[in-house]
Amino acid sequence: DKGGGEFYQLYRYDLADGRIILLTDGKSRNTGGRWSRGGKLLAYTTTRRNGRDNDIHLIDPRDPRSDRLLVEVSGGGWGVADWSRDDGRLLLMEYISINESYLYFADVRTGARSILTQKGGEKISYASARFGADDLTLYALTDKDSEFRRLVKIDVATGKKLWSARVDDRVYENNWGNGPRCTPTVAGENIYAVSGNGRLVCLEVNGGKLVWSVDFVKDLGGKIQSWGFTESVLVDGDRVICTPGGSKGTLAALDRLGEQAGESVAAVREREALAREQATPAPPPSSPWPTATTC
């Protein structure tokens, strides 16, 4: 944007020749870009149509002329949450207020929109939604049936909750809105989520049972910034990479599996090194008297 106006524009940077090409119109507000799983299409929101409503557009950044309106909406609280694994559907979120939001699907080919979390009755907040590995389920953070945000697994076909699990029993509050600030990370048989207060949980995807948890502040020396902890952890092999910040380091690598799951790799290595040092017998004290070899 320019001058903090938040009228963001999308550009393409060509690695081959260094050219920077404007993809949007240079005037509207364009946000929330999400790459398709195949890496060819970008879904984003734009106010291009009337300066107010956040319509959903698709573009192949290699060809700016490919830009097309996919879903016309009403309101400025719309965003693209995720692509399905087969790139056939988008998961959309409509934000009304901190206490009310809704999840939708959009067909990438036709633009047909369908609601997953029905309107009417009690107002419920959903956030940080993403598809499961099989496209038959999705995960989201919600305050449904709870005072605190919980991670839920939802059946895509019926919208029914399959399980719900606590992420934190504290609510992080500030001037930018309360609640979660991360999208869950799914890896194998586990799913990972972080609360605004810095509690990282590892849960089983089947049933939501807690496997392990880590507190960024208490366990890793992290420090909460004014906007809270706002990250989705990275899973790399048998490591979970997170950014607690603070006196013990900006980044931390945690063991993902096994007996030391949830522990800092650095802390484990330090403890093992200390154990080896303590297990090594100390050399005998030297004697001030001459030995037989020096007489």
List keywords for this structure.
single chain; 295 residues; mainly beta; four-stranded antiparallel beta sheet; 5% helix
Short précis:
With 295 residues, the protein is mainly β. It has one helix at 265-279, and strands spanning 11-13, 20-22, 30-35, 42-46, 55-60, 63-71, 78-83, 89-97, 100-107, 113-115, 126-131, 137-142, 150-155, 161-166, 185-187, 190-194, 199-204, 210-215, 234-236, 239-242, 252-255.
Walk me through the topology:
Elements: E1 11-13, E2 20-22, E3 30-35, E4 42-46, E5 55-60, E6 63-71, E7 78-83, E8 89-97, E9 100-107, E10 113-115, E11 126-131, E12 137-142, E13 150-155, E14 161-166, E15 185-187, E16 190-194, E17 199-204, E18 210-215, E19 234-236, E20 239-242, E21 252-255, H1 265-279
Antiparallel strand pairs: 1-2, 3-4, 4-5, 5-6, 7-8, 8-9, 9-10, 11-12, 12-13, 13-14, 15-16, 16-17, 17-18, 19-20, 20-21
Tell me what you see in this structure:
It is a single chain. By secondary structure, the chain is mainly β. It has one helix and 21 strands. The strands form six sheets. The protein has a four-stranded antiparallel sheet, with no helix packed on it. The protein has a four-stranded antiparallel sheet with strand order 7-8-9-10, with no helix packed on it. The chain has a four-stranded antiparallel sheet with strand order 11-12-13-14, with no helix packed on it. A hairpin with a 2-residue loop joins strand 5 and strand 6. The longest helix is centred in the C-terminal third of the chain and has 15 residues, at 265-279. The mean pLDDT is 87.
